[in-house]
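Quick check before the chapter quiz. The format below is the same one you will see on the exam, so make sure you can read both the input and the output lines.
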Amino acid sequence: MKRYPVGASVPVYYRPGQSSEAVLEVGLDSSELFVLLGLMPFNLIALWLCALMMWPSKPEPSCLPSSGRRAASA
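Here is the expected output.
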């Protein structure tokens, strides 16, 4: 209440065209930042798993010779 006393003139930030959405302070609050930092490891793991699934896998080499015949033993 000390920061915004009753009857004082304070700047208000609002979205043009939607004055029902207004705030007194812009930016992230410390609690919001704490939540974002807490969720970061889970987001990084999810991104890593998505990258593994999307990464093109190389086909495994064939065990047979390319000509289809058995190699002659010396």
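If your answer matched, good. Residues 60 and 66 are 14 Å apart (CA to CA).
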